[in-house]
Amino acid sequence: MRQSQHKQVNISLRIAIVMAFLLCCFVVVAVRAFSIQIRGAEFYQSQGEKRHVREVEIPVSRGTIYDRNGEPLALSTAMVSVGIVPGQLLDQFSKVEQLAEVLDLDADELKQVITSRKDRQFLFIKRRITPMLADSVKALNMKGVEFRTEFKRFYPAGEILANVVGFTDVEDVGQEGLERTYDNWLTGTSGKKTVVKDLLGQVVADIDVDELEAAKPGKDLHLSIDRRLQYAAYLALKKAVYKHQAVSGSAVVLDVKTGEILAMVNQPSFNPNGNKENNEGLRNRSVTDIYEPGSVMKPFAVVAALESAEYTPQSVVNTSPGEYEVDGFVIHDFKDYGELSLVDILVKSSNIGVAKLVLDLGKEHLWDVYHRFGFGQSSGSGFMGESAGYLPHHDRWRTADHAALSRGYNLSVTTLQLASAYSVFANQGRYRAPTFIKGNINEDKAIIDPMIAAQLTDMLSHVVNDTEGHKAFIPNYSVAGKTGTARIAEKGGYSDKYMSSFAGFSPVESPRLVVAVSINDPKGEEYYGGLVAAPVFAEIMKTGLRLLNVPADQLNRTLADVTGAENTTGAAHVNE
Amino acid sequence: MNMQSGITVLLACVLIGVLVSYVYKQNETRKLFAQTQSIEKEKLELNAEYARLQIEKSTLVSNNRIEQVAREQLNMKLPEDEQVLVIVR
Prior knowledge:
The structure holds 2 protein chains of 2 kinds. By secondary structure, chain A is of the alpha+beta class. Chain A has 20 helices and 19 strands. Chain A is elongated, with a radius of gyration of 38 Å. Residues about 565-575 of chain A have low confidence and may be disordered. Chain B has one domain (about 1-85). The longest helix of chain B is centred in the middle third of the chain and has 59 residues, at about 1-60. The chains are: A alpha+beta, B mainly alpha. Chains A and B meet through β3, β7, α9 and α20 of A and α1 of B.
């Protein structure tokens, strides 16, 4: 009994002790829980999310560049870039060797990169490999190797269009040409979204797709270029540059009615799908390179004469004796042409003739005519890196400069400017800025009297027709145009090098195409524009008119002639 | 008293039902999401293939190749100027 009583006392004390102990435990748990759940909540939540919630980038491709018929000229394909988390690869060097082998990398170098940069979170080891190769890397099943989608730019037209379209760098940013000019338009914005990943790294849910960071793919660009004509023009130019061992050359084809650039070719060029170290080929010479054009400018001097109303195309100027002194400089003609009409001044390309015409008119008028035709100003095509050329202000002209300008010296132009200026004659005296974009037609504005444009068109058709065997002649079509052969200025004066050019349009009655060709420093006996540049013009024009289905307007020989001669009975189906 | 415990049981059942359907829906969502993921992946792959095929096509129809095939395999050539006849309507 005493014992049991003693026991009871003990029991209640023990219970109290145990309770106190448990309470202590509970307090500890409660305090710990408080510190984790409430005070440390943010930290633990973010730690937890770090392991499951990821922000992933939604890659977007750059817009495709098409020609006017929808043929791709630059397009992006999805490729896989391989990156590593160096810290996770330190203990699996045997697999790193396999990785290096698959990716064709140097294994020792890769190991060194891994050890020296083990603190980096991520670094690319090989960019833009094919999805097939990526699959064999994935098959290695390595931890610490990650894959990202990137795009590779591909240029199906290759060197034919290389310096016009340009190219992008490794980050997909436009570096040259239209890729650079329209970079903002072509570039997409890659989006971001927040996702939940499970233990295996599989995305199991989208948490948040931010509208502001939604992926916006790059927009496509439809050029005015016609790939077929571009190809033909490129071959014609390349052949001529090779044949005459010229340093460089350019040709531009414009649609008279819209100002659209249908073809623009340059030599030398480069392969946009290969390496781009060939600096000489990178420039789009048609718009970046300027030169003194020579005689192709004479028609504009004749415009000035006709505008003065003191001359008509039939007015006569005496160019005897083939030498003419202006301000201490002597101007020569090829020979003594005697009395020449304005038409014949252009046909014979008389330096003395145009000099005499413009010296009477005043400097400001000639400057104004050149200025209206767009010389000395950017053509308005928008091409990045386009040159404005050079036209000195008339205040600074001496009399000798005045005469030199009339025959195309003392000013510099681009081949595109020349083509645009000639299209004014073909477009009833209205200037329209050229464009590279299909359907993006610029407003045209009247800059000379349509009457004078018609007179010039007629005079320029005489230039081709009145010269026996003119190389700009093409069968079945009438052609108007003018050659130019200018000495190239070098340090200390004019050299023995020449710039040969030809600009013209066809058909004469309702012109469709303007073509300007310039060939820099042709070697050998042939250097006159009529021999070097005119054949290129003819070949490009011939192909262009055929591709555009322009009806022939000057028939040298019809089917009637042939069938009439060969088949006397069956001529009924001809000449419907 | 009886009524109260009845309500409790009912609410407990509803609660369990809601929880079970939540789990079920969650599972359903994950499954559908996995499906969209694989479809989107397929879309990417198809896009990539489309681009590859476009490149292949543009290589096949390149003017260079057409000219070569026309000249060498089909024995074609551009007509000479004298061979071109124009029909006037």
